[in-house]
Amino acid sequence: MTQTMRWFGPNDPVQLRAIRQAGATEVVTALHEVPNGAVWERDAIAARKAMVRAAGLDWRVVESLPVDEGIKTRSPEWDRLIAQYCQSLTNLAACGIDVVTYNFMPLLDWTRTDLGWELPDGARALRFELVALAAYDLFILQRPGAAESYDAATCAAAEQRYATMDEAARRELERTIIAGLPGSEEGFTSPAFLRAIETYADIDAATLRDHHVAFLAAVCPTADALGIRLVVHPDDPPFPIFGLPRVVSTEADIANLFARVPNRSNGLCLCTGSLGVRADNDLPGMVDRLGDRIGFLHLRSVQREPDGAFHEAEHLGGDAAMAAIVAAVHRLSVREHRSIPMRPDHGHQMLDDLARITNPGYSLLGRMRGLAELRGLERGLAYAAG
Ligand code: DNO
Ligand code: MN
After folding, report:
1. Tell me, what's the ipTM?
2. Which residue among 120, 162, 253, 377 is least crowded, i.e. fewest CB within 10 A of its CB?
3. Would the pTM of this model clear 0.95, i.e. be above it?
C-alpha cells in the first residue's frame, strides 16, 4: 500500500512536515477554497502540488472533487456542471493526479452526533447515535414527516433525550450534525437545511441511482481517456438519514454501479469505517470481489453499539476484521502488481492533541498511531506470505 494522510491545505493545523515525519509518503488533498461545481484551474493545482513536493511528499490522489448538488438532483445546470467537472479532471490529469475521490450523498457528507466522545483511556472518538439524530430531526429541525423515519422505540428515546438537553446542548447537537464536518464542503443552518431537503422531494433511491449512473456515464469517458480512476466514497453512515436516499451503502449497490457503467475509470474508494457500520458488509470479501475497481483505501474500524449507534474504534480494534482486510489487500496488490494508496481514515484525539485545536477526526497523533499500526500489520503479513 502507498501510505498517505489527508491534508486540508495551507490552513490545516497539521503541517506537511508532520505528515512526513508520521511516515506517509504522499498526501491526499483538494483545492478546498474552490467553490463546489467550479473548475479547478491547472495553475492552482500545479502550485499546490509544488508546495507538497517541496515538503518531500507527493500528491496523486484527490479527495474530493465535489459533485455539485445540481448534478445529484439533475438541475437545469447539469450540462454546464458536467462540462466543468470534466475540465477539472483534465486539469488534474495534466498535473499528474491519477485518482479522484467523490461521493454521491445528498446534501450531507459524513455525519456524526458527537465529536468528542471520551474513551476509557481518556482519548476522544467520533460517535453516531441514531437516537441523537432523531432528537435533532424530530424536535430541533422539526422536519415534516420525520416521525416516519424512525421506529416507535427510537422516537420515544429521542423525546426523552431532547428533554434532558439544555439550549446549549441542543445548539451543539445541531452544529455537529449539519454545520459540516472537515472535508464536507457544505454546511447548513436548520432553516436552510429544511429548504435543501425539499429539493429532494421527488428523488427516491431509484431516481438517485439513475442520477448517479447519468453522472458516471457522462464523465467516465473523459476519465478513461485521461487515465484517471474516479473512486466513489461510500455513504457514511451507510443508510438513509433525514428521509434522503443513500445509494452507495452495500456491496450490491457498488456492484450494481459497476454493472451499469462498466468503464475502467468507474472505481471505488473502499472505506472500511463507513461500510463497516453495517454488519452485512463483508469487508475482506469486498476487497476480494471488487478488487480491480478499488483505487483508494480508507482504513479504520468502527465499534457497533445497540440502537443504531457506533463509535470510531482503534484501527486494529472494533468490528472491522482489519488483519483479514489488509491480507486481502496484500493479495490484490501482488495479483495486480500495484501499490494501492491508503490512508488511516480518521484517528482518535489523544495525547498532546487533546489540548490542541484540531479538525475532528483529523488530528495528527491518532492518525499517526493508526498509520503505524496499519504499516506494521501490512509488513508482517507480507513477510508471512513470503
Ligand atoms: C470523511 C471522509 C469523507 C470523504 C468524502 C469523499 O472523513 O472520508 O468526507 O472525503 O465523502 O467525497
Ligand atoms: Mn472514509
Report:
1. 0.98
2. 120
3. yes
